[in-house]
UniProtKB/TrEMBL annotation:
PROSITE patterns in the record: AMP_BINDING
Membrane-spanning intervals of the chain: none
Organism: Rhodococcus oryzae
Domain AMP-dependent synthetase/ligase: 9-381
Ranges where the AMP-binding enzyme C-terminal domain occurs: 447-523
InterPro entries tied to this protein: AMP-bd_C, AMP-bd_C_sf, AMP-binding_CS, AMP-dep_synth/lig_dom, ANL_N_sf, ATP-dep_AMP-bd_enzyme
Name by which UniProt lists this protein: Acyl-CoA synthetase
Length: 535
């Protein structure tokens, strides 16, 4: 059958009505309660004129209303648009206009004021839904442009009943990329493909896709009442994938307003958290720092797994986590907004990230020819099967990232590079766009960053190319150290890196900063790092 995400959620809510679905800052909602709140939100949206196919931007931090907005929109076959709340006004204007959003859901007063200044430049926006008190500046700007402003609180008076039109697997889910290397792009997923790939067919811990809604309901009833803490913001693809995945399992999702390592560690004991989702070292480093500080003070016994996705997660950070709690199961998911969940990496003795053979992942050359197992050639990792329709309103980038081979097979080729071993295992090397060419030798930034993160004084680091007259490019590192650490020198960094890296991969220059700039989801900001390294 063809799956629709709203149908899947409603099926689970009916199957396990009394289980806790969502815990947010100490407030618990059962599946019945969350479904009712999502229905009220859906009626509020529809009452204000949002209809099937409309795009609605969610300019929100984590919160209950963020979750009910996502669910409410897909219930009425509208399309949620994830928005990075730290975007500049220019970036926000871009995403509002590029996504053709007809409405925006917003909360914080400062976000409302930013939106007020942008309304004139966003003619398609006709409604603004406000969580909490409405800012005067927003009301003034909305009146000047005849934009309706609706209080989210009005949903409380509306029906909790799910009396909506039938849906299909062809309904659209539009997921905007993080935009760390350029303006964000909207990845167009059919609901059915979204369910089968990012959500692992509703069966992330087993084999095969669920066959129908009845099987989903049965599996949810049998699934243990586990508690999953999503540390990332919901505007990030990995968090959205996890939210829907855990709801499909009938599990309990724990959300925090912001990523705060101290509160995450405290939540392990308070909410009996069993699994934590992070985004690479950007979250992993501060989290393990806090775990080490609070070891013996906070009860970590319920925690059995930490999962990462969307960014590099170094061996050194994992080893520190295991030192705190040796029985932890660490899972490093490989995936992207454009490909969904591709499986979990393993790490060999040399520190290489390895992906077991999979029929949905191959290695191709620049002409999209598949590289045979055991080839010495470095190629591009390509996904096949349930791939997105393309990028919203960008045929050129769609053709480049989602090409179709001569045999009609559609691929998702994102620039991740690797090599394929004789048994079909793919060894991940890094993102080609972050590859540094120094005197003809290729250096992948992720590998050097992982080595730097193993230094006891380094709190965070990004690696970028810097101009070099003789070699063309040199390896440069932008580094933040822990407070109170001795001043770090280039010689010390180089000596540390030579223990695990070939000489040509060792940084030739470093720039020390107070804090390495990352997105709220922990994603690297390589544009900023390049500017710092070149200054």
């Amino acid at each position: 059958m063809q799956f629709n995400l709203a149908d899947v959620f409603e099926t689970v809510a009916s199957a396990v009505p009394d289980r806790i679905a969502l815990t947010y800052e100490g407030e618990n909602l059962s599946y019945t309660q969350l479904d009712a709140e999502a229905n009220r939100t859906a009626h509020l949206l529809a009452q204000a004129g949002v209809t099937r196919g409309d795009h609605v931007a969610l300019f929100l931090k984590n919160g209950i209303e963020h979750v009910t907005s996502i669910l409410g929109l897909i219930k009425i076959r509208a399309v949620p648009i994830n928005v990075n709340y730290r975007y500049t006004p220019a970036e926000l204007e871009y995403i509002f206009t590029n996504s053709d959003s007809v409405a925006v859901v917003v909360e914080l007063p400062e976000h409302q004021r930013t939106l007020a200044a942008l309304l004139e430049a966003c003619p398609m926006i006709r409604t603004v839904f406000v969580v909490g008190e409405i800012a005067d500046e927003l009301l003034t700007a909305a009146n000047a442009r005849t934009v309706s402003v609706v209080s989210f609180a009005e949903a409380r008076e509306l029906s909790p009943t799910a009396d909506f039109d039938s849906r299909t697997g062809d309904d659209l889910y539009l997921l905007y990329t993080g935009g760390t290397t350029g303006y964000p792009k909207g990845v167009m997923w059919r609901h059915d493909d979204f369910f089968r790939k990012p959500l692992s067919g509703g069966n992330p811990y087993g084999e095969g896709t669920r066959q129908d809604l009845a099987e989903i309901a049965s599996a949810a009833k049998e699934f243990p009442e586990l508690s999953f803490l999503i540390a990332a913001p919901l505007m990030h693809g990995a968090a959205l994938y996890s939210l829907f995945t855990f709801f499909t399992l009938g599990a309990r999702v724990v959300l925090r307003r912001d990523f705060d390592p101290q509160k995450v560690v405290e939540s392990i004991e308070k909410d009996s958290v069993q699994v934590i989702l992070i985004v690479g070292d950007g979250m992993g480093l501060p989290l393990v720092d806090e775990m080490e500080r609070r070891k013996g003070e906070v009860d970590l016994s319920s925690l059995f797994s930490i999962t990462s996705g969307g960014a590099i997660w170094s061996t050194s950070v994992r080893d520190r986590m295991l030192a705190v709690k040796p029985d932890l199961l660490l899972r490093d998911n490989f995936g992207a907004s454009e490909s969904g969940n591709d499986g979990a990496f393993t790490i060999d003795e040399a520190g290489n990230l390895r992906m077991p053979p999979s029929p949905n992942m191959i290695l191709v050359d620049e002409r999209l020819n598949e590289l045979p197992a055991g080839s010495d050639e470095i190629g591009y990792i390509a996904r096949i099967g349930n791939v997105p329709l393309g990028y919203y309103k960008d045929e050129e980038k769609t053709a480049r990232t989602f090409p179709t081979r001569a045999d009609g097979t559609r691929l998702s080729v994102l620039g991740d590079m690797g090599r394929v071993e004789a048994d079909g295992t793919i060894v991940f090397l890094g993102r080609g766009s972050q590859c540094i060419n120094t005197g003809g030798e290729k250096v992948f930034a992720e590998e050097v960053e992982a080595a730097l993160h193993a230094h006891p004084s380094i709190a965070d680091a990004l690696v970028v190319p810097a101009p070099d007259e003789r070699m063309g490019q040199q390896v440069a590192a932008v580094i933040a150290t822990y407070p109170g650490s001795p001043e770090l020198t280039l010689d010390e960094v180089q000596e540390h890196c030579r223990k695990t890296l070939a000489g040509y991969k060792v940084p030739r220059s470093i720039v020390l900063v107070d804090e390495v700039k990352r997105t709220p989801a922990g994603k690297a900001d390589y544009r900023w790092a390049t500017t710092m390294a070149s200054s």
